[in-house]
Write a structure and sequence with these properties.
Elements lengths: L1 H16 L4 E10 L4 E8 L3 E8 L9 H13 L7 E5 L9 E5 L7 H7 L2 H20 L12 H12 L4 H13 L6 E4 L8 E4 L2 E5 L6 E4 H8 L20 H12 L5 H27 L6 H7 L2 H12 L6
Antiparallel strand pairs: 1-2, 2-3, 3-5, 4-5, 6-9, 7-8
Helix pairs in contact: 4-8, 5-9, 6-9, 6-11, 7-9, 9-10, 9-11
Keywords: Kinase, Transferase
Pfam family, one: APH
GO molecular function, one term: kinase activity
Length: about 325
């Protein structure tokens, strides 16, 4: 498989890097149900580290060509993203749609990132995350085919399809329906902007990864998702924004970068929505295991976090939660 894939990659990259290209050191990094990530070297008169992402199309994730387009537009707006060499929705060349980009050095494992940061490093990275989100949100998405999405409605449907719910989830859905703030400006939304999907190097934020859930929506969705408890990976509540700093420090840094004021009441609504969404995701992952669709200890373990998420939702609805 690797040899065949290397040969196919060589053919894909010849128009980009020249006829003398050779593909070496091809190795799989991750392999999920939908997409696989490979690392390899493209060798011409120099050696260039590249990343291949490939997998079958589905109805949930953005196409490879759309991912490439929005990353290029986000980069033009100032967001740190890997340089893309090629992307194609056709399976003709590699057997599945694909995206090829430059590899970026740095760390993605969150606990290693935390251990390497002092207080000044955390504050710097928090500010860089806010600046990156502001850049993504000002990117021009028009004409790129980015779909709109109401993630909350999607998770409501997902829960109904499973035929399972909890009293806390139902209360939260009802509260959100009754208190939804007025619609704000529609922007390019990353959809999964969080620790774990960022590359961090000695200079701080090096790249924003994993654009599969990109869509058009409200900026508060990305801001709130970054601040749910799951994505601070055990850090204390005072570091509620990605385990890096306070939520207020994050929002203030975003306001400075975006040149606008945020509505704190709207943000709190979106924080409840994001926390509830994570709870439904946890329940759905458990269902994949329990139904026999994908037997996995990891999925079962994620399902055990439903109760943790219910606590977070209740805390927020009682006026507590991250400050």
């Amino acid at each position: 498989m690797s040899r065949e894939l290397a040969d196919a990659l060589t053919g894909v990259l010849r128009p980009v890097l020249g006829d003398t290209i050779a593909v070496e050191n091809l190795r799989a990094l991750t392999g999920g149900a939908s997409r696989t990530t490979w690392a390899f070297d493209a060798v011409t008169d120099s050696r260039r580290a590249l990343i291949l992402r490939t997998g079958p199309p589905d109805d949930v994730h953005a196409s490879m060509e759309l991912e490439a387009a929005v990353q290029q537009r986000a980069a033009a707006a100032g967001a740190p993203v890997p340089h893309i060499l090629a992307a194609d929705n056709s399976p003709a060349a590699l057997g599945n749609p694909y995206l090829i980009c430059d590899a970026k050095g740095g760390e993605t494992i969150v606990r290693r990132i935390y251990r390497a940061l002092d207080d000044a490093g955390r504050a710097r990275l928090l500010q860089q995350c806010a600046q990156a989100l502001a850049a993504i949100h000002r990117a021009d998405y028009r004409g790129a085919g980015v779909p709109p999405a109401d993630q909350l409605a999607g998770w409501r449907d997902q829960l109904d399809e499973m035929g399972d719910t909890t009293a806390t989830f139902e209360w939260a859905f009802r509260w959100l329906a009754e208190h939804r703030p007025p619609l704000s400006e529609q922007v390019l939304v990353h959809g999964d902007f969080r620790m774990g999907n960022l590359i961090v190097d000695d200079g701080g934020l090096a790249a924003v990864l994993d654009w599969e859930l990109v869509h058009v929506g409200e900026r508060y969705e990305d801001l709130a998702w970054f601040c749910i408890r799951a994505w601070r990976f055990g850090a204390v509540e005072e570091l509620g924004a990605g385990g890096l700093g306070s939520v207020e420090a994050f929002l203030s840094a975003y306001e400075a970068a975006a040149g606008m004021a945020l509505d704190r009441v709207a943000f709190r609504w979106w924080l409840v929505a994001a926390t509830l969404s994570w709870g439904v995701i946890c329940r759905y992952q458990a269902e994949r295991h329990l139904s026999g669709q994908t037997e996995s200890v990891e999925l079962a373990a994620i399902g055990r976090r439903v109760a943790e998420t219910e606590w977070d939702v209740l805390d927020l609805l009682e006026g507590g939660g991250p400050r």
